[in-house]
């Protein structure tokens, strides 16, 4: 099973007509036509409407909504409605609500409020999915199924404790194996009965929050269990849908979302989709990394941009407005990185509750002459002109960046050397360097096939398991390069330190050993001198300073201060026909970019315009072999470049010729079909 079959990039988003009287629906239909809205996501939070009592199902309202959308010729992504359970369910079965990290049983309220291990929740959510799918499976307007909504959170109730113990039995087989993995001889923690095991929480192994745990192995496994428990909920509903429908099934991910290991979910989704709500002030590379991560979940298969705001969010203390052109720019950036759908939350603004000020295509007044509506309509017209040109197109990347939830979890719960190191920031620094250089990147799991890449970048690869070290060595053996950083190769699959020199199983490839490591406050800077001769220059390094001892590697950069001044900070090791690069400290962005460009230049991988900040270039190749070159100007100034391909800009119809100038205004976009 793959992506929904569509004639063009679906354009639309979440629509909740159940929140308004029916006369509003007719007004919305007219506005949808003006904006080229052809796709609606329906029924995301309809459980209380479609099942108002334990043994009562009422689809009359949803019937009218679905029928109307179908008659209007719109494609439907139909949700199972299980994103939040109804009040009657919490009253009849209080055990369905979650127990939080502090041990408090929650009452009915909010969303993300269901215990994933609750037998009642599992049974009733699957039954609702079964009935929804059975009722609408034959409607040709339904092109995809949407299970739940933004899965997340954790529960620490008795059901989850029992589920965790069963999960551990299946994982370890014996208590002896579990005790060895968890290093329970420490602090008299040896378990002699499965029922002695408790979920790690504020009442058991933790202090000062979820990242401070006495036993990293226990907490690491509970995070794996929680992710898989919610995956079981998804699989329950998907199985129920499959009883009557073969249409593709998805759920909306949230990009770089720490609580759930999306790589372990990926094989169970027919196609990936995600909600793009970037943090305030993030760089365009943050969005690119998130898109590439989503594309990498299914081996490069395109994804759906399931949600983005057309204007502002409403869930933060301060919610800035997207300036003119940014919504269009970010939408095209999603397409450039692999999106085969551009959808919004929300199509009409809610009148009440916590999302009444969340951005919407149609505001409370229902006007068509607002800036936001005009920009959405213009984007809709552009996507209509694009047609099917980008559908199914893939990214021909020769660079892979490893993104690993196990390393993320293990690193950030580690007591030492520094709690100031944040996995996402380290990864983003290296992706930023690749993005600035105009390089197409596949962001992939540590289990991915690496044979097609010239460069594999593995920042903060803290946890190394299975045959990963061997597969990385094979990249270098055949002439490729592997680049990794400080705090890599430290622990095994259980979170226990390797009984070997750091960086553990990566040491032969890197040609170094790390005897000691220093950690300082964020304001402490140790300059690092990079390069040699006339090309030498200094950059800053912070947080962690590993004392690297070459074991065959050559020194590329050295510390300039403290008692270890003059010792290596960056090294390059010849391995087979290729190289292993090791960066032993948190270089500033200039330092990271210098190192990354050394490797890219060696392989001839620099993009067409690597020296123009803010100008993004990506390539997608359609199933028929047609190449699409995307150019996006994220800067505040107009840029002019020389065309590197001859073709047609699919957004304007203008022709390009090799060597002729191309001009992009701020927030400008070109899609050149070569």
TrEMBL record:
Which residues are recorded as binding substrate?
Answer: 111, 149
The Beta-galactosidase C-terminal domain covers which part of the protein? 614-673
Q: Which Pfam families match?
A: Glyco_hydro_42, Glyco_hydro_42C, Glyco_hydro_42M
InterPro entries membership: Beta_galactosidase_C, Beta_galactosidase_Trimer, Class_I_gatase-like, GH, Glyco_hydro_42, Glyco_hydro_42_N, Glyco_hydro_b
Instruction: Give the UniProt keywords, A-Z.
Output: Glycosidase, Hydrolase, Metal-binding, Zinc
Please state every residue range assigned to the domain named Glycoside hydrolase family 42 N-terminal: 14-385
Q: What is its EC number?
A: 3.2.1.23
UniProt xrefs under CDD domains: A4_beta-galactosidase_middle_domain
User: Domain Beta-galactosidase trimerisation, which positions?
Assistant: 397-605
Cellular component GO terms held in the UniProt record: beta-galactosidase complex
Q: Which residues form the active site?
A: 150, 307
Catalytic reactions of this protein: Hydrolysis of terminal non-reducing beta-D-galactose residues in beta-D-galactosides
Mind listing the GO molecular function terms for this protein? beta-galactosidase activity; metal ion binding
Where Zn(2+) is bound, by residue? 115, 155, 157, 160
A Gene Ontology BP annotation from the UniProt entry: galactose metabolic process
- Indicate the family of this protein: Belongs to the glycosyl hydrolase 42 family.
Q: What is this protein called?
A: Beta-galactosidase
């Amino acid at each position: 099973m793959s992506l929904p079959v569509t004639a063009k990039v679906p354009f639309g988003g979440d629509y909740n007509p159940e929140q308004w009287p029916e006369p509003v629906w007719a007004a919305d239909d007219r506005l949808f036509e003006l904006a080229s809205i052809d796709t609606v996501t329906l029924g995301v939070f309809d459980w209380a409407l479609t099942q108002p009592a334990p043994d009562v199902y009422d689809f009359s309202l949803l019937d009218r909504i679905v029928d109307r959308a179908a008659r209007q010729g719109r494609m439907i992504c139909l949700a199972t409605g299980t994103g939040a359970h109804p009040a009657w369910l919490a009253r009849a079965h209080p055990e369905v609500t979650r127990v939080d990290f502090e041990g408090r049983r929650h009452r009915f309220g909010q969303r993300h409020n269901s215990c994933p291990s609750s037998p009642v929740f599992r049974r009733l959510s699957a039954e609702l999915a079964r009935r929804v799918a059975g009722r609408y499976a034959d409607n040709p307007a339904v092109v995809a199924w949407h299970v739940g909504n933004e899965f997340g959170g954790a529960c620490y109730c008795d059901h989850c404790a029992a589920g965790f113990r069963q999960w551990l039995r299946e994982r370890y087989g014996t208590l002896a194996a579990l005790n060895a993995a968890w290093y329970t001889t420490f602090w008299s923690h040896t378990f002699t009965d499965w029922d002695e095991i408790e979920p790690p929480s504020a009442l058991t192994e933790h202090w000062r929050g979820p990242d401070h745990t006495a036993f990293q192995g226990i907490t690491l496994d509970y995070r794996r269990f929680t992710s898989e428990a919610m995956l079981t909920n998804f699989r329950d509903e998907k199985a129920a849908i499959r009883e009557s429908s073969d249409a593709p099934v998805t759920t909306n991910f949230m990009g770089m979302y720490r609580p759930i290991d999306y790589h372990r979910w990926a094989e169970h989704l027919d196609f990936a989709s995600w909600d793009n709500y970037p943090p305030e002030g993030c760089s365009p590379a943050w969005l690119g990394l998130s898109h590439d991560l989503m594309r990498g979940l299914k081996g490069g298969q395109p994804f759906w941009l399931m949600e983005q705001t057309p204007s502002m969010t409403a869930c933060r203390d301060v919610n800035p407005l997207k300036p003119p052109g940014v919504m269009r720019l970010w939408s095209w950036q999603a397409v450039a990185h692999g999106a085969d759908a551009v959808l919004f939350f929300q199509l009409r603004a809610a009148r009440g509750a916590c999302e009444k000020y969340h951005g919407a295509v149609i505001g409370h007044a229902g006007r068509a002459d607002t800036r936001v509506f005009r920009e959405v309509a213009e984007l809709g017209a552009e996507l209509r002109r694009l047609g099917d040109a980008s559908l199914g197109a893939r990214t021909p990347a020769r660079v892979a960046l490893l993104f690993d939830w196990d390393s993320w979890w293990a690193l950030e719960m580690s007591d030492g050397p520094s709690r100031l190191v944040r996995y996402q920031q380290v990864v983003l620094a290296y992706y930023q360097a690749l993005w600035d250089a105009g390089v197409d990147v596949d962001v992939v799991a540590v289990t991915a096939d690496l044979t097609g890449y010239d460069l594999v970048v593995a920042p903060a690869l803290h946890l190394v398991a299975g045959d990963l070290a061997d597969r990385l060595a094979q990249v270098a053996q055949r002439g490729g390069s592997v680049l990794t950083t400080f705090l890599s190769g430290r622990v095994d699959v259980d979170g226990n330190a390797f009984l070997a020199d750091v960086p553990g199983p990566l040491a032969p490839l890197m040609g170094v050993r790390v005897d000691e490591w220093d950690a300082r406050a964020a304001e402490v800077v140790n300059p690092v001198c990079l390069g040699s001769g006339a090309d030498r220059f200094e950059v800053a390094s912070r947080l962690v300073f590993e004392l690297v001892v070459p074991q065959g590697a050559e020194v590329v950069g050295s510390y300039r201060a403290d008692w270890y001044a003059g010792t290596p900070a960056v090294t390059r090791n010849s391995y087979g026909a290729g190289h292993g690069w090791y960066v032993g400290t948190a270089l500033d962005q200039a330092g990271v970019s210098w190192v990354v460009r050394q490797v890219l230049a060696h392989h001839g991988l620099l993009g067409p315009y690597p020296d123009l900040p803010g100008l993004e270039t990506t390539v997608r190749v359609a199933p028929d072999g047609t190449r699409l070159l995307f150019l996006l100007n994220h800067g505040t100034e107009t840029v002019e470049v020389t065309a590197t391909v001859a073709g047609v800009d699919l957004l304007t119809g203008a022709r390009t010729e090799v060597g002729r100038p191309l001009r992009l205004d701020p927030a400008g976009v070109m899609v050149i079909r070569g």
